[in-house]
Specification:
The complex is a heterodimer of chains A (121) and B (107). Chain A is mainly β. Chain A contains no helices and eleven strands. In chain A, the strands form two sheets. In chain A, strands 2, 4, 5, 6, 9, 10 and 11 form a seven-stranded mixed β-sheet that branches. Classes of the chains: A mainly beta (121), B mainly beta (107).
Chain lengths: 121, 107
């Protein structure tokens, strides 16, 4: 079954770190660029970061640049988001999403169910 | 950054109605625009990309139009399952940005 499954969410104190994972099933993971998109409670969607299919090209929203490096392990079909220096405003559901159409980055055609990250003291 | 502004923010309509949602970009983005549907507690779903191309499996009652700075999403005859929040997204340049969303509610 084609799906993306996020894990690693939880409650964390401000200033601490957390790593999100996104496992891909039933897809040719190494062929696609991948994104992270987040949604604060009751709010709209915010693009966070993208990584090319081979991991060589990365791009970030200013709000997370320098704090949330994106990475991937194609041998494990897994995407990562290493979140550090977390702030209360980082509280959100974090979705991983496949870039579409191949080989471009433009849109998001396959989404995970999301992982909730709550930053609170 | 390119700002995306949707209107209206919310709309009430009945089953069978025709509804149009507008999205305006703060600068020209060609046709690099997508529309997503999101239901409560669920991930967004891609409906339309490249401004007017229907994603595979999406009903033909959904259509998109526009280019440059002004875009529309039209649902020709609302079905019960269409009541949701809709977002536009520009893919012309990083950072990719979304509109604030339009909540489509049952009248």
């Amino acid at each position: 079954q084609v799906q993306l499954v996020e894990s690693g969410g939880g409650v964390v104190q401000p200033g601490r770190s957390l790593r999100l994972s996104c496992a891909a099933f039933g897809v040719s993971f190494s062929s696609y660029a991948m994104h992270w998109v987040r949604q604060a409670p009751g709010k709209g969607l915010e693009w966070v970061a993208v990584i090319s299919h081979d991991g060589n090209i990365k791009n970030y929203a200013d709000s997370v640049k320098g704090r949330f490096p994106i990475s991937r392990d194609n041998s494990k079909n897994t995407l990562y988001l290493q979140m550090s220096s977390l702030r209360t405003e980082d509280t959100a559901v974090y979705y991983c999403a496949r870039a579409f159409p191949d080989p471009y980055y433009w849109y998001f055609d396959l989404w995970g169910r999301g992982a909730l990250v709550t930053v609170s003291s | 950054d390119i700002q995306m502004t949707q209107s209206p923010s919310s709309v009430s309509a009945s089953v069978g109605d025709r509804v149009t949602i507008t999205c305006r970009a703060s600068q020209g983005i060609g046709s690099r625009l997508a529309w997503y549907q999101q239901k409560p507690g669920k991930a967004p779903k891609l409906l339309i990309y490249a401004a007017s191309t229907l994603q595979s499996g999406v009903p033909s009652r959904f259509s998109g139009g526009g280019s440059g700075t002004d875009f529309t999403l039209t649902i020709s005859s609302l079905q019960p399952e269409d009541f949701a929040t809709y977002y536009c997204q520009q893919a012309n340049s990083f950072p990719y940005t979304f509109g604030q969303g339009t909540k489509l509610e049952i009248k």
